[in-house]
Amino acid sequence: MGESKWMGKRWEDMDTDVLVKIFKELNLVELSPVSQVCRLWRLACSDPLIWGTLDFGLLKSNFIQTRASPYIWVDDRSDKRLAKILRVAMAISCGNVNCMIFHYNLYMKDEHLHYISQRSPRLKRLVMPAWNRISRMGICQAIERWEELESLTMPTIGHPPYIMEELAKSCKNFKELKIMGSFDLLFASAITTYLPKLKVLSLRCSKVTMGALQCVLNSLEHLEVLNISHCLLFEMAANGRRQVIHELDNKALERASRLREFHHCQSRQCVACQRMMLDEGILRWYRYEDWFWRRDEVSSLDLKDYGRLFGAQCEMLTSVD
């Protein structure tokens, strides 16, 4: 018998779309050595289908709270670990990340934000970490580079107008905002002034003044979706005391009924609402389930399960000695 000839393709000669389908099943730690095999594999590892969403939702800083600004101290090993992971992710993704998710207890610095904003210019959605150590210049420079940004989830900030102004100036397609923390009249006025065409706003599990809510309902003419589920709604009484609002009045409900979606829940039987009352409007997220902060009644804002690219295995294998 003549010598049989193997007709199969070698790995290095496989079609890129086949490699991408295989590599989509790998996580960040596994992709790193794979991307160094050859030029074709490197190209496949950088495909946008793999890097649509980079979810660092499991990555938290080792920190303690302090009384002095920035009111947080972060272990140096946490910063080194974050820098290490970002270097790997940004090197392989080649600028193809369009959604980036960070844990609410990840305390990055300006240099981290600068690094990712330079290397992920096509970002369309950002779920921000806490920004105790991020400066005004740092966040503004990052937003300026993200011209395609459409959606931002952010913690409360003391002086929000400059953020809203930068979004209006740099991100012409911006349409979706989620606030996690406090939402007062200053915040609402900044949004209505600089982002009058905002379409989606979620204040889920935030402390919201009635004046701010009325400002949003009366002034954002292009708003289509509003979520105030599990919010602590309140107004200041004449004696200066805070009065909690358990039911919206007919005027607010009538105005909200014009929206395509209006999500609200201020029920004494609701577990999330009970937690808001217990924490006096500022949720202590660390007390509750790890996934609780990721949920949202608005489908486009809900983060669902943790992503494959940075799963539990990556969390264990990317520690810094």
Relevant terms:
Leucine-rich repeat, LRR (right-handed beta-alpha superhelix), alpha/beta, eight-stranded parallel beta sheet, F-box-like_dom_sf, Monooxygenase, 2 domains
Structural account:
This protein has two domains: 8-50, Monooxygenase; 52-317, Leucine-rich repeat, LRR (right-handed beta-alpha superhelix) (Alpha-Beta Horseshoe). The chain is 35% helix and 16% strand. It contains twelve helices and 14 strands. It has helices at residues 16-23, 28-34, 39-45, 76-93, 110-119, 136-145, 161-170, 185-194, 210-219, 250-256, 271-278, 312-317; strands at residues 53-56, 63-65, 72-74, 99-102, 125-127, 151-155, 176-180, 182-183, 200-202, 207-209, 225-227, 232-236, 242-245, 261-263. An eight-stranded parallel β-sheet has the order 1-4-5-6-7-9-11-14, with no helix packed on it. The protein has a four-stranded mixed β-sheet with strand order 8-10-12-13. The protein has a two-stranded antiparallel sheet with strand order 2-3. It starts with 15 loop residues before the first helix and ends with a helix.
What's the number of helices? 12
Number of domains: 2
- The fraction of residues in strands falls at 15-25%
CATH architecture title of the largest domain: Alpha-Beta Horseshoe
> Helicity range of the residues?
25-40%
Run of helices and strands: HHHEEEHEHEHEHEEHEEHEEEHEHH
For the largest sheet, list the strands in their spatial order.
1-4-5-6-7-9-11-14
Kindly state the number of beta strands.
Answer: 14
Q: Oligomerization state of this entry? A: single chain
Name the shape in a single word.
globular
Class inferred from helices and paired strands? alpha/beta
CATH class call of the largest domain: Alpha Beta
The CATH topology of the largest domain comes to Leucine-rich repeat, LRR (right-handed beta-alpha superhelix)
